[in-house]
Amino acid sequence: MISKIDIDLILSLVKELLPSVLEEVGFDPMVKEPGHTYGELVEEKLVEKLNTYDNEKFTLPKTKRSMQDLNFVKDLINIKFGYKKNGQPNMVSFNRLCDKFLSGEINSYYIISIDGSDNKICMFNLYEHLEYTNTNLGTGQTMLKETKFFNNFDQEKDYAITRKDVILKLKDISQKSHRSHIELREQQEQTRQEQFNAKLQLL
Q1: Sign of the CA dihedral with 169 first, then 128, 46, and 76 last
Q2: What is the pLDDT of residues 133-145, one digit of tens each?
Q3: What is the pLDDT of residue 12?
Q4: What is the mean pLDDT of residues 5-13?
Q5: What CATH class does 4-200 carry?
Q6: Structural contact between residues 10 and 39, judged by C-beta atoms closer than 8 angstroms
Q7: Closest Cα partner for 101 from 190, 20, 164?
Q8: 130-134 own/partner pairs: CB under 8 Å, 24+ apart
């Protein structure tokens, strides 16, 4: 887990570095969907600058397919840049979120969220806010319900949660998402069968 002192340090660094990052990537809020257009560029440039600032604490993942953009000592950080954050962006694969926690490989998964419309920045441990996520087992992705989350999130509040409670929440999410996925697939198959039968009656 990252301490409150270190979270404040990381936030202050990101706020300090963000203007130069946006300038270097040529950020233009007038383009269509600026969050999608510049998201990856901003995230990569910020990772580069944090790593340059302190390459002992801010280290790069071993592969580009890792679930994090950056490590802070042993904790994983994923940077999410958007514009007027009110959607449901992908955070991480649900299988990875479960498997790495259950194995004890990680006990936190931090998100640094940046809104390019007002440069608002926050940082949080996703495991402490699972009630604001939506998991789609079709795509395998866990997404953040941004509007609800940001309306309730307080950077200064302690959201610490026990390991047991995280596992219970992941278990509940998995069960509900599985049922929803099966129901959707059954509904889709029923619709297809009805379409097949309707065409066969015409032959």
Answers
A1: negative
A2: 999 999 999 999 9
A3: 97
A4: 97
A5: alpha beta
A6: no
A7: 164
A8: 130/166, 130/169, 130/170, 130/173, 131/169, 133/91, 133/173, 134/88
